[in-house]
């Protein structure tokens, strides 16, 4: 039996059984636990959940977006990736330039009112179309601020210098593989204010570790939406580990996922119960074509998922 997915499902069961009820920024409410760690042996297979379908194409394009240092959703929309839309849309509908119907609390209202949900989808579609068609509008309303891509590739120091953390960590893995400083941080205290970043980084820091020709990665994530977000995070950092290992001529080892506030939103509880009732299937594998390319030049077509046969998707609302 594969253990990677069981590790995740065990966390879901633990939070369902032992999680404390807490309020949250979105007003939805959660079952929460503090401090939880999962380990995934990447030689066992690629840790993409099989008890529900997780769209790997979105994980690919988001990670490559991070690695390019991009922070504007225009690239994501060009790849039919909608997972970051709600945050710039919120800024748009709260701006003085927006003249459409009232979209206040659209995340919750769209789940409760079918008529409003149709209005919301119409306004979101118009927003996306304008982001794709109007470069000036995209520049103003499509940018998420100083989020992951900015911090990974263009960290600005207090001295006004620019630091490419990903390029630096790749160089250090190649030249100083025993270093205990193979770290990339996305948490810049200056940039967590809403006017500087749409959302403060949830996955705040990761560290690489090299031993016996294998590359492992540990992520510290301050906040994890266990049903919707964490499956993406697991697969994304597993993919990142594969990409960096390929760049550095190493095999893959483990991905270790350490969570601060690990929570299940109260409006995801029934979906989690559905998932826990399903049987796990064999894990897929991935293949990466990096011939003649650096990790920064890889495109979505260079990464293929093989043998993925999951149970159907389980829909759930995003808390914004």
UniProtKB/TrEMBL annotation:
(6R)-5,10-methylene-5,6,7,8-tetrahydrofolate binds at residues 225, 319. The gene is thyA. Keywords: Cytoplasm, Methyltransferase, Nucleotide biosynthesis, Transferase. It is found in: Cytoplasm. GO terms for molecular function: thymidylate synthase activity. PANTHER family: THYMIDYLATE SYNTHASE, THYMIDYLATE SYNTHASE 1. Gene3D superfamilies: Thymidylate synthase/dCMP hydroxymethylase domain. This is Thymidylate synthase. Catalyzes the reductive methylation of 2'-deoxyuridine-5'-monophosphate (dUMP) to 2'-deoxythymidine-5'-monophosphate (dTMP) while utilizing 5,10-methylenetetrahydrofolate (mTHF) as the methyl donor and reductant in the reaction, yielding dihydrofolate (DHF) as a by-product. This enzymatic reaction provides an intracellular de novo source of dTMP, an essential precursor for DNA biosynthesis. GO terms for cellular component: cytosol. The active site is at residue 202. GO terms for biological process: dTMP biosynthetic process; dTTP biosynthetic process; methylation. NCBIfam families: PRK01827.1-2, thym_sym.
């Amino acid at each position: 039996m594969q253990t990677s997915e069981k590790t995740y499902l065990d966390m879901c069961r633990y939070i369902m059984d032992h999680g404390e009820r807490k309020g949250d920024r979105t007003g939805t409410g959660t079952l929460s636990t503090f401090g939880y760690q999962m380990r995934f042996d990447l030689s066992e297979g690629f840790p993409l959940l099989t008890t529900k379908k997780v769209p790997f194409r979105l994980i690919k394009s988001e990670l490559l977006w991070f690695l390019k240092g991009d922070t504007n959703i225009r690239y994501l929309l060009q790849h039919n990736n909608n997972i970051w839309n709600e945050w710039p849309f919120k800024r748009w509908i709260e701006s003085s330039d927006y003249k459409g119907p009232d979209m206040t609390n659209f995340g919750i209202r769209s789940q409760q009112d079918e008529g409003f949900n149709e209005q919301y989808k119409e306004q979101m579609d118009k927003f996306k179309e304008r982001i794709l068609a109007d470069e000036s509008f995209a520049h103003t309303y499509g940018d998420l601020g100083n989020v992951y891509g900015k911090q990974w590739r263009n960290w600005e120091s207090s001295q006004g210098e620019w630091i490419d953390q990903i390029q630096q960590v790749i160089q250090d893995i190649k030249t100083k593989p025993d270093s205990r400083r193979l770290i990339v941080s996305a948490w810049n205290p200056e940039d967590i204010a809403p006017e500087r970043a749409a959302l403060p980084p949830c996955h705040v820091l990761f560290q690489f570790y090299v031993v016996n020709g294998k590359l492992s990665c540990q992520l510290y994530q301050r906040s994890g939406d266990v049903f919707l977000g964490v499956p993406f995070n697991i697969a994304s950092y597993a993919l990142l580990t594969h990409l960096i290992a390929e760049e550095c001529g190493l095999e893959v080892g483990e991905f270790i996922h350490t969570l601060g506030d690990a929570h299940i939103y109260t409006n995801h509880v029934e979906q989690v119960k559905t998932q826990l009732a399903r049987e796990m299937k064999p894990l897929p594998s991935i293949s990466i074509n990096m011939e003649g390319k650096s990790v920064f030049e890889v495109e979505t077509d260079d990464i293929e998922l093989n043998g993925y046969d999951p149970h159907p998707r389980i829909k759930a609302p995003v808390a914004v």
